[in-house]
From TrEMBL:
Main localization (coarse): membrane
Similarity comment: family membership: Belongs to the major facilitator superfamily. Nitrate/nitrite porter (TC 2.A.1.8) family.
Organism: Kribbella capetownensis
Top-level taxon: Bacteria
A GO term, aspect molecular function: nitrate transmembrane transporter activity
Name of the protein described by the UniProt record: MFS transporter
GO cellular component: membrane
Subcellular location: Membrane
InterPro entries hit by this protein: MFS, MFS_trans_sf, NO3_transporter
Transmembrane regions: 54-78, 90-108, 120-140, 146-164, 185-211, 217-236, 257-277, 289-308, 315-339, 345-367, 388-405, 425-444
Length: 455
């Protein structure tokens, strides 16, 4: 199973007896025979090896999300540390990592087949040292020009790319019947990184005397090194983990790929966007309330809700859970507007927690829709359906992540032009109505092509 020096070509025999060759000019710990759909193989060897690869992947992805969202909590304390950036500039520092992270998700998806899951986990973990070291240094320099600080913040986007490569890698290890739960746990573990960074960093930067923002970066450096070491020691690469650019192009031509990507902007995009903006929203909207320290609750409840949304989607169908989630998200937005008009921080907080729960559940249900939609629209060719569904997951994860950029920028523009968050909230509510209508029209309406199926 373990090969430290791979030959140029290795053979692979699947459970049907078909023999093929795999070019292998690289070196490292590789598994050349892997067939989780074979019950005997899975029970004897596969499950143990898959789980051994899952938990280091969760840890690395957790750190990726933590680094990705570091600036969401750091910017709250930057004025106290002597930085004189405007509110709009602070929102830029929050938004830029999401923009870069979303853009990196597609190349990160192809990195696993090209370099191996274990190898890329090591590399992607070590890349997190760049934004953490940069943050640690430049947050001790209050005279840093904004353009340079924005560049430093943008490097945190490498953490956002980790999700795509981690999910791609784990999807190859598990059989179809266990893949949903494994991917749900993997995703939830990563999402929890947002909550943890927003909980831990405010405590760490004020520990002892004074305010030390550089600790927000230093805190993660030993954990990043540990993640790389664990991946090196424990994980493996799969020779059968292949993905072709042609398959992604084919999936990109399918209308459902872009419909689901659009919906994922409303679900995951809302989760990551509101998570990034929430601490600064509290600080700027309720300056007299010492509530920024509890901003982590939003990301926490959203992360926990994700696997439950997936489980509920397994029972009643992903489209129904997604539609209901958009209804709740719209109500949460309207409740937040009422709370802002009333000047109620408690109402504002509760409204956003409801919003986070609904968006987290919808993350799981929207992902659950993808394999069902491609299976139903590709009759008679389950292999093609699986390949294109996997490609759709990569595309949707990238497109949806742009919500992490759009949401903070929407709040910044609303505050700059109207002096209030309310116009942006109305726009978001309208967007959820459109997402609800699209989901219903495409997957639930009577007489529709998929209305008789549990998508």
């Amino acid at each position: 199973m373990t090969l430290e020096a791979r030959p140029e070509v290795v053979t692979h025999r699947d459970r049907t007896g078909t023999v093929g060759t795999v070019e292998a000019p690289r070196r490292g710990r590789w598994i050349d025979v892997w067939d989780p759909e074979d019950g005997t193989f899975w029970a004897r060897t596969g499950r143990r090896v898959a789980r051994r690869n899952l938990w280091p992947s969760i840890f690395a992805e957790f750190l990726g999300f933590s680094v990705w969202q570091l600036w969401s909590i750091v910017v709250v304390s930057m004025p106290k540390a002597g930085f004189t950036y405007s509110t709009d500039q602070l929102f830029w520092l929050v938004a830029l990592p999401s923009l870069v992270g979303a853009t990196l998700r597609l190349p990160y998806t192809f990195a696993v087949p090209r370099f191996g899951g274990r190898n890329w986990t090591i590399v992607s973990a070590l890349l997190l040292l760049v934004p953490t070291a940069g943050l640690s240094y430049f947050l001790t320099q209050p005279d840093t020009p904004f353009w340079l600080m924005a560049l430093v913040a943008a490097t945190a986007g490498v953490g956002g790319g980790n999700f795509a490569s981690s999910m791609t890698n784990i999807s190859f290890f598990f059989p179809e019947k266990e893949k949903g739960f494994a991917l749900g746990i993997n995703a939830a573990g990563g999402n929890l990184g947002v909550a943890v960074v927003q909980l831990v960093v405010p405590i760490v930067i004020v520990a002892g005397a004074g305010l030390s923002l550089n600790r927000a970066g230093l805190l993660w450096i030993p954990l990043i090194v540990l993640a790389a070491v664990l991946a090196w020691k424990v994980m493996a690469n799969l020779s059968v983990a292949t993905s072709s650019f042609r398959t992604s192009v084919t999936a990109a031509k399918r209308p459902h790929t872009w419909i689901i990507s659009f919906l994922y902007i409303g679900t995951f995009g809302s989760f990551i966007g509101f998570s990034a903006a929430f601490p600064l929203l509290i600080k700027t909207t309720f300056p007299d309330v010492t509530g920024a320290g509890i901003a982590f609750l939003g990301a926490l409840v959203g992360s926990v809700a994700r696997p439950f949304g997936g489980k509920l989607a397994d029972l009643v169908g992903g489209a129904w859970v997604t539609v209901c989630s958009f209804v709740v998200m719209g109500l949460g937005i309207l409740a937040a507007i009422v709370s802002l008009n009333a000047g109620s921080f408690a109402g504002f907080l509760i409204s956003f927690l409801v919003l986070f729960v609904a968006s987290g559940a919808a993350n799981g249900s929207t992902y659950r829709m993808i394999p069902a939609v491609f299976r139903l629209t590709t009759p008679g060719d389950p292999g093609r359906a699986r390949r294109e569904a996997a490609a759709c997951i990569g595309i949707a994860s990238a497109v949806g992540a742009y919500g992490g950029f759009l949401v903070p920028r929407g709040f910044a523009m609303s505050t700059s032009h109207f002096g209030s968050l309310i116009p942006a909230l109305y726009v978001f509510c309208g967007f959820y109505v459109v997402c609800l209508a699209v989901t219903y029209f495409c997957y639930l309406r009577k007489g529709g092509p998929l209305s008789g199926e549990r998508v």
